[in-house]
Amino acid sequence: MSTPAASPASAASVRPAGEALDHDKLYTARLYAVRVRPYLATALFALRVVPSRHVPTMGVDRHWRMYVSPAFVDRTPMRELAGVWVHEVAHLLRDHHGRGDRLARDLGSGDDEAERLRMNIAGDFEINDDIYGDGLPRPAGALHPGMIEMATGLLMEDYLRAVRITPRTPEMAWLDCGSGADGRDRAWELGPDGADGLSPQEREAVVYRVAQGITGLPGTAPEGWRRWAEQVCHPPQPWRELLGAALRAAVSSAGAGDDYTYRRPARRAASLPGVVLPGLRRHPPRVGVVIDTSGSVSDAELGSALLEVTALTRALGGRRDLVTVVSCDAAAHTAQRLCAAAEVPLVGGGGTDLRAGFARALRLTPPPRRPRRPHRRPDPLARSRPLLPCRRRPLSPPTRLGAGRRRGRHGSGPAAGVGAGGGDRVNGMGSGIRDPGSHTSDPTSGTLDPMSRIRDPPSWIQDVGSRMSDPSS
Fold it and tell me: Is 70 exceeded by the pLDDT of residue 132?
């Protein structure tokens, strides 16, 4: 692999010192660090060692190169040197260079050396509070949060608020850990075009491999490392974006509907005559919002919650009737149907127990729901019952003419007695055979004679019977 040409400053600052650097002691310290911290083995062996006489102690850059001072290796005991290995690789695993760049951008400090020094010291506090012990001795002069009367287990951003620039601040710079600790490039670093650097994909693979080793296998990793590994494997998601995407998908999803109903016929009902197919209907989502109104919530946070309620209403197309707000502190209060975001009464001020609020939201009437698409369509043919022949129903008593008229399946006619206005009925359906002339009536009484159909059968029945009795036909 060809090596890109380094700049004159880099060539003057970094020189190979193979004879001066004690490689055996350095690599023995790395093996000892792997023995006492096996979950960091992948990251420790991924570092590329670059000897340099201009680096004060040991430092790393964001490209996973570790610059080593031969004099520092000579005067440091082997076990303490293993602690320095772990310290430097922890800067890279915890992304102190990327977090330092974001902090500098938020604070507007740019590449100010004093601000970057504060970030380096704050990063040392985050690392040194839990990596030493259990076979890894603390090096002489190593920083710890007790020096500024801070608790352990905090993050770099928390310690940064307590670190101040004083005349003794340079003395707290135990190690010049390089750009991998605060994001500011050093003069003795090779830069992005130097040799033996890891690509961004390789760096991400190393970080994920270490995090997977911590979470996937039982061990004695400190609590800080377990939290870090959990965050790498399951990074926090932007809940505002996820909530907005879910509402937009529920309101404006593609398709004619998301649930089946028999209130409207299906568009494809003509393809299956005689079968009632259900149609599709869209149900708008109903949203229940639980707002924490305990005493620890400030007015600004409550105002932010009301803004989120307004955004939810806007995502639902302005349908305020679909949004219900529940105030909850230690107990759930009355659920309020939303009329306007500014008119939502927020009741509370006590303790905090959001379980009562969630239980109250689930009991809303109608309950909050989101549109769903069934896994499989119901088979309408499976629900239809075949028409089977059955015995003739007993004749009903005579009914007056004009007692009621009903339009039958195959036409209209008086709904009086059996066979009127639809012929014989089998399984509740008209047979479609009607012979008006086959019925007789008594003009004096105004009623139909139900026995006339038996005494005088229709002409087509007589024709069929004569053909069956005549062999020649």
Answer: yes
